[in-house]
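We store chain and fold; thus.
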Amino acid sequence: MLDQEGLQDFLEAYGRELVGGDLDGIAARHSYPAYVAGDTQSIPVASPADVKGAFTGAAERYREHGVVGAVPEIRRMEELTSRLVWADVRWSYLDGTGAELRAESYRYLLREAGNSCMICVVVALGAE
């Protein structure tokens, strides 16, 4: 079963890929099909191409707003089965001095995959 340390490692790598614009790395962290839900829309994610399309230009937008780091804080983990976990994660977006520029929270449904996990569902909980 995925433990908190393994999930933290996964999320830290995912954060580096997000801020660095590593589309292949971001796409490789998802299970397909996946699903994204928010207050105003629901998005089925059928393939790595969908993830890459959604995140194209994100790193540039982060840099335009002064974001150089994305730091995850696991607020809660709930084991659903021997391989599925819900995780509430607060993302802190940092500038070059380490100051928080903004924060957002998400709930992830993750499936254990070997020594790591894959994102199955993302629920946007909003900005803090």
Q: What stands out?
A: The chain is about 30% helix and 45% strand. The chain has a mean pLDDT of 93. The first strand starts at residue 30 and ends at 37.
